Amino acid sequence: MRLSFSVGVVVAVVALVALLLPRAAAEGLPLGGGSGLVFATAAEGREVVAAEDEFTARMSPFDRQARLKSAGPVSSAEHRAFAARSVLEWGDRDRRAITGAMRGLEARFTEIGVRFPERVLLVKTSGDEEGGAAYTRGTAIMLPAKVLGSATPVLRRLLCHELFHVLSRSRPALRERLYASIGFLPCGDVVLPGDLEDRRITNPDAPLFDHCIRVKVDGVERSMVPVLWSRTATYDAKAGKPFFDSMEFRLLAVRVEGDPPRGVPDVDDAGEPIMIKPEGAAGFFEQVGRNTGYLIHPEEILADNFELLVAADRRPPSPEIVRRLGEILGAGK
Ligand SMILES: [Zn+2]
User: Fold this and answer.
1) What is the distance in A from the centroid of ligand 1 to the CA of 300?
2) Final residue in a domain of this structure, among 170, 189, 211
3) What is the DSSP letter of 232?
4) Which of 10, 87, 250, 292 has its Cβ near the most Cβ atoms within 10 Å?
5) Which of 143, 170, 197 delimits the end of a domain?
6) If you measure from the C-alpha of residue 204 to the centroid of ligand 1, how many angstroms do you get, rounded to a whole number?
7) 148: CA distance to ligand 1 center in Å?
8) How far is the CA of 113 from the centre of ligand 1 (A)?
9) How far apart are CA 217 and CA 227, in angstroms?
10) pLDDT per residue over 152-193, tens digit each?
11) Distance from the CA of 165 to the center of ligand 1, in angstroms?
12) What DSSP character marks residue 206?
């Protein structure tokens, strides 16, 4: 087939323009670099939370029971169906609140040099599925309805925090460099000692206990992994409290062996696991800094520092942590 001259010229011009144009404008609220934050339909949201992933695979029997506030055992399928039922449609007021909170962030992300996945989904939920907390799965951020009424700066910080989790999950090599910048190195996915494994509490933003930090405990150098579990052996469905109420957090001593490295819980002379609070670990705060009290995982320490990096509105107690984070993100453009 031959095109007429004029049609040929139009085709050539269109092709040239397409070549010269930068990457298509971002869908949704722009995050820089052609990435966008997109309001998910309820159907899209249900697909995200009902999916099987590292989080659902790692959940303990306690995890599932506590999410459903159930007195009996809960299967993974039941839990995922429950999570799907918590998804809501976005309203105009919600969209306005998010749009306001995101104002100016595209320029700041571009300045830092951070590159998010092309399409980050925002899912509104009732909050019932995750103790009322905001969290992430895959490249999606789940926001419970109650946080949408927060003041704009609060919502902005929360969005930055959650965006860090999405970024970190989508770039594994960058994640390793970032974790190493605060002293955390891979140590396999540590299984909790004794019956604690059945009542581990799993954080969707960082489902594995898989990075350890070297510190001194009572003068002995050790590898420690931050772990979470429930104080109560079973979920108290009668009281019906959120799982956060019974959550314990400690640094657990592990022996790290093999290649790839694998951490196995270490024991003291009495054969008991060695579990301490961060305050008892000499050298801990020297590595992670003192910019946040949210120390349950290197992922969370860094997400809080990312909030500070983006806001750049105050001098934190450990500015070097924020500076290094900015350097690594900028170098990973
Ligand atoms: Zn977080």
Assistant:
1) 5
2) 170
3) S
4) 87
5) 170
6) 9
7) 17
8) 21
9) 16
10) 999 999 999 999 999 999 999 999 999 999 999 999 999 999
11) 7
12) B
